[in-house]
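seq as requested:
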Amino acid sequence: MRVSRGTTPSRGSTRWTGSVGDLPSHSVGKSPSWRRRGLGLVGALIVVGLTAAGCTPDPGPMPSTSPSAVVSPTVTPTPTSTPTPDASVKPERPEAMDEVSAAGAEAVAVYFLQLFPYVYATGDLAEWRALSHPECIYCASVAAGVEEMFAAGQHSVGGHPDITEVNAAEVDPGRWWSVDVDLVQSPSQTLDGTDELVEEFPGSSFHMDIAVVFEGDHWVVRELSHERID
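struct tokens:
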């Protein structure tokens, strides 16, 4: 995960019992294995004994039927690919953010994380700053990193976060929640103005702690810390 171009905020002495963090993994199904059991028919010749002058006629050769194997073709399904989210598309603001509750705090944390690849892809920091507390070190670090990147004529692609778990604990009733989130972030790349590769970041799993507060009439992220868990 890119943190203001390589700057990783350290954990403070106060832990917010929370963390922030596409995710479901997709597996390509195997084609069914079909097995058909061969069916054999055994023919039997019934010889009717004829007694004529004490003579028994020769029944002749006995015909036999051999089972034939039936070969079933293997069916291979066409794999379906999961489209990669476009980081330049602004994430939709969750309706739950209108609630002053644990669910609202969780929605704020998830939305804030979804804005991360968006701001690096577009340079649009309006929503990011609107959700950032003035004293949030991590928030300011990301904003500075975005401004530095775009001043150099660069932008980012990829980096979508797949949220695997999110839980909020109320610290100060009606005002402060500690949100704990786990996520898997997809790989990302930094490109220059001609879309040439400048830097590459591998995908990783993270556990994040986010302090979310409701001040006045709006939500803000007070601070965020993270650790890599893969």
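The longest strand covers residues 161-172.
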